[in-house]
Amino acid sequence: MFRFVVLVLALAASAHGAGLTDRIIAGLPADEGEYPYTVSLRSYNRHFCGGSIVSNRWIMTAAHCLSGIQPSQITVVAGTNRLDSGGEFYQAIRTVINPNWNSVLTRNDIALIEVSRDIVFGDKVQPIALPTEDFNEVGYWAELTGWGSVRLIPPVAKNELQYVFLPIMDQAECLSRSIKITNSNICTSTRTGQGACYGDSGNPLVAEGVQIGIVSWGSPLCAIGQPDVHTRVWSFVDWINETIPKFASVFTTLDTMYRSLVLLLAVAASAYGGSVGERIVGGTDAPDGAYPYQVSLQTLLSGHFCGGSIINARWILTAAHCVMSYQLWPGMVRVRVGTNDRRSGGSIYIARRVLINPDYSASDFRSDVALIRLTSSITFTEKVQPIALPTEDFTKVNYPAVLTGWGSIAFPSGSSPRRLQHITLNIIDQEACLARDWRTSESNICTLTVAGEGACHGDSGGPLVADGVQVGIVSWGTPCAVGEPDVFARVWSFIDWINENVN
């Protein structure tokens, strides 16, 4: 009788979109570490919902998961695909439910959890990227992950993390299914016997490495071919970005002013051709591990924004215009190393300090060099190594040098590749470099290639390497890839400043 009552209550909860036991039916077991952003939420060591890592202190989940439960009762477990073993445990200290959460209609079903200490990132623990634009790809097969029963009756919990691919439903069709559904939802359509159900509430729906949905609710009878309803993350990105800084100790009431300043500086930089988005045009996919010194500079809000290079276990070399806006808040910058995929793999390190060359000029990009000190030492491997710095000036003319980076692969517009790109460029005579523009000086080095090849928006801060030595840092070039020289900061001109600060 007790089991029957429990089942009836669970079905009733699901009918209202709650159901702290939504689960995946007809999923497959995930490989260990395959979904490093997925976490298990537990109360008294019992799994009750899923969630995703969005920063080193914050977890995103569904609001209905946290109804009636105190932060002191919640533990977040990251870094394991099993419920019975492994992983790192983090105590929740704060829960923030969206103020527009409606438990009757299951609307605005999103919440955040702050944990008591920094989450340690590694191969099995990584944050998920948040959307920078809405996702409306009808029929796209998105990934859903979670632990939970693998069948409806009787419920049988699955110890291993499961994953399943679900197609995104047309939004008009989604809206027509229930009065509870609004444009702040996103639906997936499934075949009978497959989909989300009791146990995976709060878990992430991911497309192209970006979390687009949060499991919210579905039909009382799971996996019968009815749509599964998710919270549309894009509808709440502003709320997420406002909430996390509001409660984080490293932020102040000046946060809004700071964000405006970042935007203004980015616009100003772009107007002068510097742009935090310089990219390689005409490049090709780099072999895995071929450039172990290359890093991606990222933020939780915008993902990859610049390149850089490892110069020792604690320091990264990049362009000043990339990180000038982060001097007061270096902890916003994450450095991804050891992978050719800017969205996954490798390891993440957090910036502790940003140093801008004192002679840097934002108006003409003179002395466009900066250093980033990390909070912890980089672990060197075959795919993670420092680059050699010059011991003398580089004066070879028409000499090949290699540029690497992530960025749009076409000019004037194009998609940004996930895979690292590389291209060989020719270093030109210094007199020709100086004649490029009034902004160039002896502390620059230039390359020139045919139209349709070269550096442009998205690779700023990335390394130019000749004979295994970094000779340049991507600085600026206008317009892109039309046969005009690309301009780099000449590393040799700043070697004393680099050594003084790094050592």
TrEMBL record:
Signal peptide start and end residues: 1-17
EC id: 3.4.21.1
Compartments where found: Secreted, Extracellular space
UniProtKB keywords: Disulfide bond, Hydrolase, Membrane, Protease, Secreted, Serine protease, Signal, Transmembrane
Catalytic EC class: hydrolase
Superkingdom of source: Eukaryota
GO biological process, one term: protein processing
Domain Peptidase S1: 24-245, 280-503
GO molecular function: serine-type endopeptidase activity
Pfam short name (any one): Trypsin
One GO CC term, this protein: extracellular region
InterPro entries, alphabetized: Peptidase_S1 (IPR050430), Peptidase_S1_PA (IPR009003), Peptidase_S1_PA_chymotrypsin (IPR043504), Peptidase_S1A (IPR001314), Trypsin_dom (IPR001254), TRYPSIN_HIS (IPR018114), TRYPSIN_SER (IPR033116)
UniProt similarity note: Belongs to the peptidase S1 family.
Protein name, per record: chymotrypsin
Gene label: LOC107221090
